[in-house]
What we know:
Blueprint: H1 2-16, H2 28-34, H3 73-80, H4 87-95, H5 97-100, H6 114-128
Amino acid sequence: MYGRLLAAFIMILGTAGVASAQDIKGDADAGAKVFKKCSACHKADEAKNTIGPHLVGIIGRPAASIEDFKYSKAMTEKADAGLIWTEAELADYLRKPSAKIKGTKMSFPGLKKEKDIANILAYLASLQN
């Protein structure tokens, strides 16, 4: 009996998985606060590049598509392979940019909290409307 319960429990755990940023409802106002970590290098409310490319309209945009920004070779290779910045791709990148795109120029270590990622995605989405 305990064996069956344990097997059922393991099966439930195996299918539960870890919540992704898309599973967590983000808050745009909270995302604006978290985005301050990004604002040293990126603008999201103005199509102006700084150290990094602007993020206006980033959701749904092809990677490395801002014409007047010099991207790393690693980023242009991902773009050539068809990377589109969907919310899922952005969430994955924001967790650890250097793991998602090995050789990226972006030195940001990533966001550890799924809620912060969801909030930034909500913030970026709110600017697209």
